[in-house]
Amino acid sequence: MAEDDGRASVVPVLVLRKITQILRSFSVDQPELTLQQIIRTTGLPASTCQRLVRNLVVEGFLDREDDHYRIGLDFVQWAAPGTFGLDLVRLTRPALQALRDRTGETACLYVRHGPFRTVVSLAESRHPVIRLFVVGMVMPLHAGSAGKVLLAWDPTARQEAVRHGLGRFTDHTVVDIDELTEQLAAIRRAGFSASFEERDAGAASISAPVFGLNGELVAALGIGAPLQRVSPADVERLAPIVMELARDASRRIGFRAETPFAVRSATEL
């Protein structure tokens, strides 16, 4: 009896693993696949794959039209309740805290509202000397690394910022539209933004984009610190950490690496 129970507990896991392989073969890039494509992608034996695909269609996990299959609408509807009650702040909280812990600096999550950015979540540094941030704090888009991330990946943000006006806050604030456009193109290529004393004297920040389920920009994740602790010389060390945890935040809200970006960068307009 014990041996039978052991087999019963293992066999379903093996079947579920194969089903998972089949479902994961679909993506935003390839939402429809033939049976042969599914077999090649999963590496499953043809007979096994054919049998499982047929059963998945019967149960509503897959839909079939002619020779092509796609994720079933029933499956999508069943999954929908899993998103209820979830929000950007709660889902990205682990990434935010990890960013604070790994860099030692205050980590902030920003979203855009018109020509401004707002802190919607933060994990405060434990250093006695810190840059002051509070949830609800509103700042311009064109001054600071997080704002420039929002400008670089959001095609409407640049228009909003220019329409509002590029005000000067320090001697390092970029107020020339051509210079700003060049910076945004460089930020897009690098995958992150670093700024020094653009909004406040003695302040530094490094930020990276957070993408949503469909590849759209939803937020910027970054660190803010006194210039005495984060200087241009520290960017090479800290930027990869910021980008890594921005990717983690993106994954936590449903973004998949193979998803094409749903929006163009502001510099491509």
UniProtKB/TrEMBL annotation:
SMART domains: HTH_ICLR (SM00346)
Domain of life: Bacteria
Gene3D superfamilies attached to this UniProt entry: 3.30.450.40, Winged helix-like DNA-binding domain superfamily/Winged helix DNA-binding domain
UniProt keyword Transcription present: yes
Domain HTH iclR-type: 13-73
Domain IclR-ED: residue ranges: 74-255
PROSITE patterns reported in the protein's UniProt record: HTH_ICLR, ICLR_ED
Residue stretches in coiled coil: none
Pfam families the UniProt entry points to: HTH_IclR, IclR_C
Keyword set includes Ribonucleoprotein: no
Keywords: DNA-binding, Transcription, Transcription regulation
Protein name: IclR family transcriptional regulator
Organism whose genome encodes this protein: Pseudonocardia yunnanensis
